[in-house]
Amino acid sequence: MGIELDKLTLDKLVENSFSQFKEELFCTDIDKVKITYADAQQLLSQVQATLKSFDIKQGDRVAICSENNVHWGIVYLAITSLGCVVVPILPDFHSNEVHHILKHCEATALFASKKQKTKLDEEDFTSSLKYIFSLETLDLIENLNESPIEFVNEVKSLGAEKFTQMKAKAFELANIKEAELEIKEEDLAAIIYTSGTTGQSKGVMLSHKNLVAQMQQTHDLNPILPTDRFLSILPLAHTLECSVGFLVPFANGASIHYITKTPAPKVILKAMQKVKPTVILTVPLVIEKIYKSKIQPNFTKNKLVKFLYNNVPMVRKKLNVIAGKKLQESFGGHMRFFGIGGAKLSLFVEEFLIEAKFPHAIGYGLTETAPLISGAIPFETAVGTAGRMAIWMEYKFIKDSPDQKDGELHVRGPNVMMGYYKDKARTAEVLTEDGWFN
Fold first, then answer.
1. Model pLDDT for residues 107-166, shown as the tens digit of each residue
2. Alpha helix (H) ranges present in 1-126?
3. pTM of the model
4. Which strands, in side-by-side order, build the sheet including 388-389?
5. Is residue 54 within 8 Å of 84, Cβ to Cβ?
6. Which of 100, 159, 232, 238 lies 20 to 30 Å from 151 when distance is taken between CA atoms?
């Protein structure tokens, strides 16, 4: 059945997971930090108390700009379950793109990593941004209502003991339930910018229902268990990783392990041996690089093997099965779902994965659909396809004429976006009044 909630909102999802999985491991950075669901609940309360203390309230936009980090998801949940709107920003966006997004969405606050914070120092702000928090420490690092000197002097004047007492008081406030806070399924939860280029960016508006509906849609395709270990290699600001790679494991009590280095194939393979993941989400480029560097050379190392592999199907299939077992071992030996999305996978590599009996699955979707439209089930795949439609999704193909071979896909369902932020014209181009998305 998957998870059952009174309503499809992120605050209800948070309540459900924290009540069920307190002692389970929630996330790690592989090498140092380990956070349980109970730890995450405390940190989430701390973040919410801090936001409240600066009068950040329901409906305010709060951005996150950082590389993957154990605090990223906790901050995301703290923002959205407080009724604020989260604005994830991809860490590879240029500084002028980051500034444009912050101004366009009218962000009140920003959580930034130390590395990403440097992008904000390159020009003066003329936006609504008031506060910048550190994603590493979760503390306020810049108050844009005051000059930097005034802010530093204010903190210094408090003294370490007084500052600690203020944080403790803020933490106590987090446990006070605000009676007026009521989050509805149709409320805006996130604005995700698909392109940061000034004048071209599209802020995709996703509601609480859009995001939480995916928990049941993914469960119907591939149920996730509390014993599952996710290895996260895609940026959390990407909708695929945030929804399927973060919210889905969180909803089901699974653990998530973050690579803090640049996820090159060598780094990923080393992390796999340490984590022994059961689930990974990736883009085609990663598995294609691993195939070309680790697998293909074994089939071309001598002329006889190369000839047999390319010309005798039975030999090719046996060699692929052997290679598949070695690939599983190099991935830690416990992989049961290797999800691929974001672009088209090389047909040659996909044919290998099928013959190698490797548990891959290709999905299809867009940021505008939060993102799942369809998904495959491992060992039930066909070359060049992207599985079956997710539950609750209606679809139709629009053709210019009856004899036209290909049609334009239109879908409708609980995960289809609300529209593009501040852009009625482009919303009208792709979204009809009755909910069909082109």
1. 999 999 999 998 887 555 557 899 999 999 999 999 987 654 454 455 556 565 655 555
2. 10-20, 37-53, 72-80, 95-104, 114-117
3. 0.91
4. 34-36, 25-28, 255-258, 229-232, 279-282, 337-340, 360-365, 372-375, 388-389
5. no
6. 100
